[in-house]
């Protein structure tokens, strides 16, 4: 059976969630801190560092708002009154979180893509720097071998590459230091 390189990542994530739930039950105010640290490594664009801790930012809550808005519109199309109420409440909850969150104000369709929607929801228009080239890496195509876990645990990348080679997975598009690892693995076989 082929080795799934992200199985380890998902197992770690699931364990951190279970630990956080248990800590939360015991009243720990930082119950989710380790999970957020882990998530920060996976998707740093969703966080700002506040007092040394990763905190979900406006981009994160903006995407949640956008998702709830789409779900609400779908419920409206289906004339699902209960769904409309549920998604509207979710949307408003995410809007409040967006307003309180740290970070630059991103461009979020339905929230602040027009000055009229920004005014309607009481938020600022997208920050003019939102299209700064430094932020464009968010939109880069990411592949399984780009997972940050491989920087911390390179032996997992080695194991995944060996399995990929053994089972004939196309790894020709790997375009980062993993190329060196591929070379080492293929030379050893």
Can you characterise this structure?
By secondary structure, the chain is mainly alpha-helical. It has helices at 7-25, 33-42, 58-77, 81-100, 115-121, 149-152, 154-166, 178-188; strands at 47-50, 53-56. The chain has a two-stranded antiparallel ribbon with strand order 1-2. Helix 1 (7-25) runs antiparallel to helix 2 (33-42), helix 3 packs antiparallel against helix 4 (81-100) and helix 7 crosses helix 8. The longest helix is centred in the middle third of the chain and has 20 residues, at 58-77. The relative contact order is 0.11. The model is unreliable at 133-141 and 175-179 (pLDDT under 50).
Q: What is the string of SSEs from the N terminus onward? A: HHEEHHHHHH
Please describe the biggest sheet, giving its number of strands, its sense, and whether it closes into a barrel. Answer: 2 strands, antiparallel
Mean pLDDT: 81
Number of strands: 2
Whole-angstrom Rg: 21 Å
Describe the global form: globular
Order of strands in the sheet with most strands = 1-2
Please describe the structure with a list of short key phrases separated by commas or semicolons.
mainly alpha; two-stranded antiparallel sheet; 8 helices; 189 residues
What is this structure's SSE topology?
Elements: H1 7-25, H2 33-42, E1 47-50, E2 53-56, H3 58-77, H4 81-100, H5 115-121, H6 149-152, H7 154-166, H8 178-188
Antiparallel strand pairs: 1-2
Helix pairs in contact: 1-2, 3-4, 7-8
Please sum up the structure shown.
This protein is mainly alpha-helical. The chain has eight helices and two strands; from the N terminus they run H-H-E-E-H-H-H-H-H-H.
């Amino acid at each position: 059976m082929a080795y799934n390189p992200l199985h380890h990542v998902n197992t770690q994530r699931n364990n951190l969630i279970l630990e956080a739930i248990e800590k939360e039950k015991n009243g720990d105010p930082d119950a989710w801190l380790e999970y957020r640290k882990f998530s920060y490594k996976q998707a740093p664009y969703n966080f700002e560092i506040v007092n040394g801790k990763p905190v979900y930012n406006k981009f994160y809550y903006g995407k949640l708002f956008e998702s709830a808005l789409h779900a609400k519109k779908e419920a409206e199309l289906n004339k699902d009154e209960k769904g409309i109420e549920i998604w509207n409440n979710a949307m408003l909850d995410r809007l409040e979180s967006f307003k309180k969150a740290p970070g630059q104000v991103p461009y979020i369709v339905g929230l602040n893509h027009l000055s009229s929607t920004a005014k309607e929801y009481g938020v600022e228009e997208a920050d003019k720097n939102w299209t700064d080239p430094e932020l464009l890496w968010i939109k880069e195509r990411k592949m399984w071998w780009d997972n940050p876990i491989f920087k911390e645990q390179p032996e997992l990348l080695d194991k995944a590459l060996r399995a990929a080679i053994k089972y004939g997975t196309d790894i020709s598009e790997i375009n980062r230091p993993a190329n060196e690892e591929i070379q080492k693995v293929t030379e050893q076989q």
